[in-house]
Design brief:
The chain is 83% helix and 0% strand. It has a single domain, classed as Orthogonal Bundle (Helix Hairpins), CATH 1.10.287. It is an all-alpha fold.
């Protein structure tokens, strides 16, 4: 998914997607260790998706902190 698509999702959905991505990464690494992984690029793709999701979550966290500081 693209970052724009991710930023449109609610935080709860992003956290669920992050959890799913970590599970998928675990499964892909397990398949690679067994020698059953057919697409080596899939690990890289999942890791990039995890980074995108974490970036959007962090941006929201920082925006909330800035909003809280402005209220004070």
């Amino acid at each position: 998914m693209r970052a724009r698509e991710l930023s449109a999702l609610p935080t709860a959905d992003l956290e669920a997607k992050l959890d799913d991505a970590y599970r998928e990464l675990f499964n892909l690494r397990f398949q690679k260790a067994q020698g059953n992984l057919k697409d080596d690029n899939s690990i890289k793709r999942v890791r990039h998706n995890i980074a995108r999701i974490k970036t959007v979550l962090r941006q929201r966290e920082l925006a909330a902190q800035i909003a809280a500081q402005r209220k004070q």
